[in-house]
Amino acid sequence: MAVELARRGLNLVLVGRDPAALQDVSDTVSSAHGVLTKTVQFDFSLVSTPQGAAPVHDSHTKIVQFDQGRADRSRFLAGDEAMGRLREAVAGLEVGVLVNNAGVAKPGAVYLHEADAEAWVRMVRVNLWAMTEVTAAVLPGMVERGRGAIVNIGSGAAEALPSYPLYSVYGASKQYVILLFYYVRFAGPYRAQ
């Protein structure tokens, strides 16, 4: 997805857990397509904790340090410094396209009563909470400019229930994405054109 967007000339903010993978994608798209990139190391499973984000790097390899005392904590949930850092990383950027592609399917194919509760919490943080927070971070700019697109990468588990009976929490989390954007696209300033 990143390579195709860069091929079309879009500058990119790449977000992920693995700094080496982020740098590899950044280097690839910057050199092949001449676009600017910014990378944000971020573990979406830690979205509601202070440990979820690390410094931001742009395509010129300059490190952007976060002054933790500077963030307006009143805008964020208590203890959600990681999401505050991600919002700071995109502040002032004209985000034209958001691709929500993060997702977790673990604990995998298990009966609901056999799954580890921590795995559910991680799944909810990544598949619901983080996606919602990231979307909320870029929507104001899209509304202000009167344009923008959000692409959600989903799963057949959201619709094909008989095919995925042991993925109840995962399927429900992906159904959330469908329903959230069903409502958002018809809401006031977000109304789809």
Automatic annotation (TrEMBL):
InterPro entries: NAD(P)-bd_dom_sf, SDR_fam, VLCFA-Steroid_DH
Record's keyword terms, sorted: Oxidoreductase
GO molecular function, one term: ketoreductase activity
One CC-aspect GO term: endoplasmic reticulum
Keyword hit for Oxidoreductase: yes
Pfam families: adh_short
Protein's UniProt keywords contain Oxidoreductase: yes
Stated name of the protein: Estradiol 17-beta-dehydrogenase 12
